[in-house]
Amino acid sequence: MGKEGYGIDPDRLADIARQVKGVKDLGVSVAIVIGGGNIYRGIRAERQGMDRATGDYIGMMATVMNSLALQEALEKLACPTRVQSALEVGRVAEPYIRRKAISHLEEGKIVVFAGGTGSPFFTTDTAAALRAVEVDADVLLKATRVKGVYDKDPESHEDARFFDEISYMEALERRLQVMDATAITLCMEHKLPIIVFNLLEKDNLRRIIVGEKVGTIVRG
C-alpha cells in the first residue's frame, strides 16, 4: 500500500516489479505468494464481529487483486507471468495446479500464487511455505518492512535485538514473529531455509540472490 495507507500504491508496485525482474534477469526461477492485508485482513474482520472464516475468504480474494496488479506490473517489464489461485476465479487466473506451476517455472515464467491455501484459518505465511515446498524451492524469502528478525517489535522498542541467524526451534520456542508456527514447522520438516528481509531497502532482493548477507536467515 506504500504511502497510500490502503490499497495499492502504483510506485510501490512498480518498485516490487522492478526488483523481481532484476532477480529473474539473473536466471533465477521466481514464484511469489502475496497477502491481502493492504486491502482486507480476516483477523481484523473477526475483531469487528464478522465470522472468521468469512473474513478469511474476503482476505483471500484481496490477494487475487494484488496478484493481478503485480502480474500487470511485471508484464509491463516484459516478464511473462502467470497467476494461479487456490480460489476458483477462472475468468482472471488459472486454478492452482502444482504440475502446471512447475511447468511455468521451467518455461521461464514468473508464477504468482493467489488465494492463500484456499482454506480459512491459514495465514499467507503458511501458504508461502506450502507452495515453496510443493515447487521444490531452494529458499523462502519473506519480504517485510523491517531489517529481519528481532526479539521484539523494532518499530515500538528501540532496544529490540536483531538476529543475523536463528534456528527454526529457537524461533518457535521464543515465539518470534518470523512466520506463524505452522509455516516454520513446515519449513523445518523440509529443511527449507527462510530469509526475512526488508523489501523497502534498495536492491535487497538482488543482493540476497547474489549471496550478500541481508536480513535474518532461519534454518536448522
List keywords for this structure.
220 residues; alpha/beta; Carbamate kinase; 2 domains; 4-stranded parallel beta sheet; 4-stranded mixed beta sheet; 8 helices; 10 strands; globular
Could you give a short description of this structure?
With 220 residues, the chain is an alpha/beta fold.
Structure report:
It is a single chain. The chain is α/β, with parallel strands linked by helices and 220 residues long. It folds into 2 domains: 1-137, Acetylglutamate kinase-like (Carbamate kinase, 3-Layer(aba) Sandwich); 138-220, Carbamate kinase. Helix content is 40%, strand content 16%. It is built from 8 helices and 10 strands. It has a 4-stranded parallel beta sheet with strand order 1-4-2-3, with helices on both faces. Strands 5-9-10-8 form a 4-stranded mixed beta sheet. Helix 1 packs across helix 3 (52-76) and helix 5 runs parallel beside helix 7. The longest helix is centred in the first third of the chain and has 25 residues, at 52-76. The chain is globular and about 50 Å long.
